[in-house]
Amino acid sequence: MKTVLTIAGTDPTGGAGAQADLKTFMAHKVYGMSIITALVAQNTLGVKDIMNVTPEFLKEQFQCVFEDIYPDAIKIGMVSETQLIHQIVEQLKKYQAKNIVVDPVMVSTSGSRLLADQALTALKEELILIADIITPNIPEAEVLVDHTITCQEDMILAAKEIRQWYHGDILIKGGHFEDRSDDLLYHGDDVIWLKSEHINNPNTHGTGCTLSSAIAANLAMGDDMVTSVQKAKAYITGALKDGLDLGQGSGPLNHCWNL
Fold it and tell me: Which of 13, 206, 210, 233 is catalytic?
């Protein structure tokens, strides 16, 4: 069985973070593991509080995973402090990790800020640079390029700007547009559009976590990058169409809709 590791914060209601990642791994029939960066008190209505782990404890988690069950792919989600980013980069280089998917989590679906200002520099200059692919949504891509994105041409421009300092693949997700949910995959210098109609479902809690985890699962199973992203897009589309309705706010997806 292929193995996939998530490095992320938690969600006690199970819709986002490490819990969502582990469900996504199981739906793809890969063995899921998790390194926790922070305990996050959150639900479908928002984030109440965040308690980060220490860099030392984070390092111990890395040792437990990599020196026992080596992962075939890695998804990195919420990391809110600079010192934790330093530790993750150091450990991934030490263990020569492969198939790294970075979801640059900055703001939750409910609008809560999840990244300290000083950690943004470390995210851009350290963590993103070791990724094979990054998966920002529109607001996150706007932070990375420091200007607004209002149309597909802006998405292409943003990808080209990010390419100037980052040489992996770039997936800019278009789900924040109201008419379409087309995603842009910037693969090398190729512009690949992953087209999808906008699904009328207000329950989108954890969609970013889930999509990036699905990409990692597909990479672990040996698919190339473009195929991995295409399969992940189909998976997240199916999860949204499933129409699960839980919680008082923006509810979670049915991660196991395909089983």
Answer: 206
What is the rounded average pLDDT of the residues 249-257? 95
Residue at 174: amino acid letter: G
Mean pLDDT of 107-134: 84
pLDDT in tens, 123-144: 999 999 999 999 999 999 999 9
Quick one: 69 exposed, middle or buried, by C-beta within 10 A (0-12, 13-18, 19+)? exposed
Residue 238 is among the residues annotated as catalytic for this protein = no
Candidate list 14, 77, 174, 208, residue with the active-site label: 208
Please indicate whether residue 210 is annotated as part of the active site: no
From its phi and psi, is residue 117 left (phi > 0), alpha (psi between -120 and 50) or beta? alpha
CB 250 within 8 A of CB 44: yes
**CB hemisphere CA count around 66 (13 angstroms):** 20
Question: Edge-to-edge strand order for the sheet containing 169-172?
Answer: 46-52, 31-43, 3-9, 73-76, 100-102, 133-134, 169-172, 183-187, 190-194
Residue 180: both structure tokens together: 């379409």
Of 84, 201, 207, 202, the C-alpha closest to 135 is: 207
DSSP state of 79: -
Residue 109 pLDDT exceeds 70 = no
Residues β-bridged to residue 36: 8
